[in-house]
Amino acid sequence: MERLFLSSGQMAFFSFYNVPAGTHLIEVVAMGYFFSPVRVDVSARLHGKVQAYQTENRRLLNELVLEPLREEYYYEKREPFSPMALLKSPMGLMVGFMVVAVFLLPKLMESIDPEEMKRAQEEMRNQPGPSFANLLQGRTS
User: What is the pTM of this model?
Assistant: First the structure.
C-alpha cells in the first residue's frame, strides 16, 4: 500500500502494473475531503479489461478520475459565550436562588408581626437543641 500526501489543489497521477485479475477497491484518504471508494474489476477472461464503478452510486466510470464529494469538518465550532447559558446551568440556578434568599428573607422577617416574632423565638429557646448526647440517648432508648 503506497501513500502520497498532497496539499489541497494539487493533482496526482498513478500507474498500476501487474494488477492481478479480480475485484479491487481504491480508497482515497485526504485530510479535509471525502472521496467515494471506487471498485475496480480486472477481467481475467478479457485479457485485463478494466471496469471501474463508484461505490456510492454504482456508476460506471469511463475515466478513473476521482474528485472529492464533499469537504469534511473534523471539529465542531465552539459556541460563543452566553450569559443566559451560564444562568441556566445548575450552578447558576443555585447561585440565583441563594441571592434571592439573601435579599428576600430579611424583607419577609420585617413583615412579621413583632409579637408573633417574640413568641416564635420563645418557642425555639424552650425546645431542646439537637446535641450529640441527645442523639445518642434517642438511639439507645
Answer: 0.44
Backbone phi, psi, residue 87, to 5°: -70, -30
Beta strands 70-71 and 33-34 are antiparallel
Residue type, 103: F
Encode 52-67: b = buried (16+ Cβ within 10 Å), e = exposed: bbbeeeeeeeeeeebe
> Across 2-90, where does the E strand assignment appear?
22-26, 33-34, 38-42, 50-54, 60-61, 70-71
CA–CA separation, 13 and 88 (whole Å): 55
Beta strands (DSSP E) in 10-132 are 22-26, 33-34, 38-42, 50-54, 60-61, 70-71
Distance, in Å, from the CA atom of 137 to the CA atom of 128, rounded to the nearest integer, reads: 13
End-to-end CA separation in angstroms for the chain: 82
**Partners of residue 23 on adjacent β-strands:** 41
pLDDT tens string 111-129: 888 888 888 888 888 876 6
User: In 3-state terms, what secondary structure has residue 119?
Assistant: helix
Nearby residues of 24 by Cβ (< 8 Å), 6 or more positions away:
39, 40, 41, 42
